[in-house]
Design brief:
Length: about 350
């Protein structure tokens, strides 16, 4: 995983940790929702909360390739995980740089690793500069990013992860041009990830699946900043994080919901959510002040260039939430109460 944790990144990480068949080889951190060091601290704390210390957490790029860093604490909270507060983890941040982790692990395990990137693509772009064979060394790659003929969530046309570092995104897509179809990245863009709307009923169902005492009520009529009293530490953490995210979405007239972009990408990465995908040639605008960060997909071959991405075209939000709730709930149940 390469993340900028991030509320929806946090749910994505917890989900992967809940899957018994998934081995998380490493978590690499990039600046995005918050600074890279805070991202790493969030990941270490979440790993410890889930009973999985020992997974390597490495810091990578702390700024984009060519433009100044913009973070989004107003969306994800001052520490990146909303109202959730976790004690510092005992485990230390890795001495390896995230780029070294990408390159060294891919070389050591050719054809075995699936990459999941839910933040800006800076670390992966730098890793490609070091090892251009990375797309062939990986088993596959899943990217949460982009917005194709769909309204952006950062500018009128640009999605957040790409807009933070459009130059990195452009390098990544260029590196995949001409590769076999089964090696092309699966791109989870806004037109399908914004369909993954988490609602209060989903948090209630999560608490039930976890066997927590009492219902988990995160409701629009409650005061802002209310904290969970759940008997499950994992449910309480996720509830406190997601409440903040729901309040943010309501502030921008999107309803009392939370778009779980990255959790969908995690489900897609392990093949446990329904989707269809379309081949396309993707490029990223990096020069226009008006359109910087805009992702463009040529589905019809008008550019005369080979495809370099498989863009998710349809998904099933309720099936995705059923998967997330049952799996994360089972993990919370195994971890027990306070």
């Amino acid at each position: 995983m390469d993340v900028d944790t991030g509320i929806d990144d946090a749910l994505a990480l917890v989900y992967l940790l809940s899957r018994p068949e998934v081995h998380v080889q490493a978590v690499t951190c990039t600046a995005g929702n918050v600074g890279a060091r805070q991202v790493a601290l969030n990941n270490l704390a979440l790993l410890e909360l889930c009973g999985r210390p020992g997974v390597e957490v490495a810091i990578g790029a702390e700024v984009p390739l060519e433009i100044p860093l913009v973070t989004t604490e107003e969306t994800h909270g001052p520490q990146g995980i909303g109202y959730a507060e976790l004690p510092p983890a005992a485990q230390q941040i890795s001495a390896r740089h995230a780029v070294d982790v990408w390159v060294q692990e891919a070389r050591a395990h050719p054809g075995e690793l699936t990459g999941l990137i839910t933040g800006p693509l800076t670390n992966f772009a730098l890793a490609l500069r070091r090892e251009p064979e990375l797309p062939r060394l990986l088993k596959g790659l899943v990217i949460m990013g982009g917005s194709f003929y769909y309204q952006g969530n950062t500018t009128p046309t640009a999605e957040w992860n790409v807009s933070v570092d459009p130059h990195a995104a452009r390098e990544v897509f260029a590196a995949y041009r001409g590769l076999p179809k089964d090696k092309l990245p699966l791109v989870c863009a806004l037109e399908t990830t914004e369909r993954i709307e988490m609602r209060p009923e989903h948090l209630r169902r999560l608490a039930e699946a976890a066997g927590a005492d009492g219902p988990e009520l995160v409701l629009p009529g409650q005061p802002e900043g209310l904290r969970s009293t759940s008997s499950s530490p994992l449910v309480a953490c996720l509830s406190d994080a997601i409440r903040f995210y729901m309040e943010f979405h309501r502030l921008y007239d999107q309803g009392y919901v939370a778009h779980m972009h990255d959790a969908f990408a995690a489900c897609a990465a392990v093949g446990r959510t329904e989707l269809t995908a379309r081949l396309a040639t993707v490029d990223v605008e990096t020069s226009s002040p008006l359109l910087i960060g805009t992702t463009v997909a040529d589905y019809r071959g008008l550019w005369g260039l080979p495809p370099n991405a498989r863009i998710v075209a349809s998904n099933d939000p309720e099936q995705c939430f059923a998967e997330l709730i049952s799996s994360v709930g089972a993990l919370a149940r195994r971890l027990g109460g306070r």
